[in-house]
Amino acid sequence: MQRASQVDQFITERWLDEPAVDRGDLPPHDVSAPQGAMLELLARAVGARAILELGTLAGYSTLWLARALPPDGRLITIESDPRAAEIARRNLPENVKLIVAPALEALPGLSGPFDLIFIDAAKRSSAHCLHEVRNLARPGTLIVADNVIRGGALLDADSDDPSVRGVREFFEAVAAEPRLVATAIQTVGSKGYDGFALALVR
Ligand code: DHB
Ligand code: MG
Q: Rounded to two decimals, what is the model's pTM?
């Protein structure tokens, strides 16, 4: 999808001021620049003062989200891979709290509410993560979940890919939660064909 990548580049060159990150040798699983900017924009739109991110990787999306915060805002990001966390630590400012643990282990120890929650950890655990963050949300909390389309593999009911099974479970979990107003948007761009979910707690 070379054209779509070029369009991402076009948007980025004209409108965006990308945060600088050292990605080390981590996989290219960070969000694209336009998606990062969208996260900042959504955080600003909800007036976020407290943000929670599950899945830090090198901290690229974290840095976009951090831009939306007021000076006394708080941002907690959780990363299960110690190697990624070590790289992220170099990229993130002091006021971002990085927790190195699997999201499902770290979440019970947190106190909310958070105004925006970005779910971008291991896809096999997305539904469980959604369940666990319920206690950290309030009416008006915006939940964003990354990579819920996976090139359309979402449709494969018989898939044995744990990530596909995970996003399918995530769709069921959102459907079963009447407190959420939700949609999912398919995306193309430098990260291929994927998409994100938006869910607002009513
Ligand atoms: C994968 C994970 C991500 O968070 C992402 O943005 C893209 C791909 C993955 O695990 O395949
Ligand atoms: Mg992702």
A: 0.98
Predicted confidence (pLDDT) per residue in 25-62, tens digit: 999 999 999 999 999 999 999 999 999 999 999 999 99
Angle between helices 2-15 and 33-45 (to 10 degrees): 50
Q: How many angstroms is it from 97 CA to the middle of ligand 1?
A: 22
Mutation probe of ligand 1 site: the residue of 29, 38, 161 with most atoms within 8 A of C-beta: 29
DSSP state of 169: H
The answer, yes or no, to whether the previous bond of 93 is cis (omega within 30 of 0) is: no
Asked whether the beta carbons of 74 and 51 are under 8 A apart, the reply is yes
CA 155 to chain CA centroid, nearest Å: 21
187 lines ligand 1 (CB under 6 A): no
Instruction: Compute CA distances 55 → 4, 45, 120, 123, 158, whole Å.
Output: 25, 22, 5, 10, 26
State the distance from the centre of ligand 1 to the C-alpha of 71, rounded, in angstroms: 30
The CB of 146 under 6 Å from ligand 1? The reply is: yes
DSSP 8-state class, residue 202: -
Question: Closest Cα to residue 26, out of 2, 57, 50?
Answer: 57
Residue nearest to atom 9 of ligand 1 (CA): 29
Check if 53 has its Cβ closer than 6 Å to any atom of ligand 1: no
Give the SS3 label for residue 39: helix
